[in-house]
Design goal:
Radius of gyration: 20 Å
Number of strands: 0
Structural class: mainly alpha
Largest sheet: none
Shape: elongated
């Protein structure tokens, strides 16, 4: 008997459901936030070192590039937090059906976009 199942799946050629994309981006945002912590810890260190370094950090964070970096970090944090809350709600048995999972993923994406835009307005 010959096994005709594929050995290596090409995930790029598969059409994934929105729940899979929500799960993948939740993991990716977590990895991104872990890496972004280096920038945030550096900024915290600069802000606490001396009044002069605080002023230097303030002027550095006023640049459009720094604002963009902060906005991207905030967007990742918003998405990761909302997706984490969705997972916690699902741990309580709410929204575990296919329809509930799709609705939860759509809500997380929609709320993330809305809150990210609000944070962008606050940053700029």
């Amino acid at each position: 008997m010959k096994d005709k199942r594929p050995v290596n799946l090409d995930i790029g050629s598969m059409r994934l459901p929105i729940t899979a994309w929500a799960s993948i981006t939740h993991r990716a945002s977590g990895v991104f936030l872990f890496v972004a912590m280096a920038f945030l810890v550096w900024a915290l260190d600069m802000s606490l070192r001396s009044p002069e370094s605080f002023s230097a950090l303030q002027s550095a964070l006023a640049s459009p590039l720094a604002k963009l970096i902060l906005w991207v970090i905030a967007a990742a944090l918003i998405y990761h937090a909302l997706a984490g809350v969705r997972h916690l709600i699902m741990d309580f048995g709410i929204g575990e059906s296919l329809e509930g999972g799709v609705l939860g993923a759509r809500l997380v994406i929609a709320l993330s976009i809305l809150l990210t835009l609000l944070v962008g307005v606050m940053i700029w």
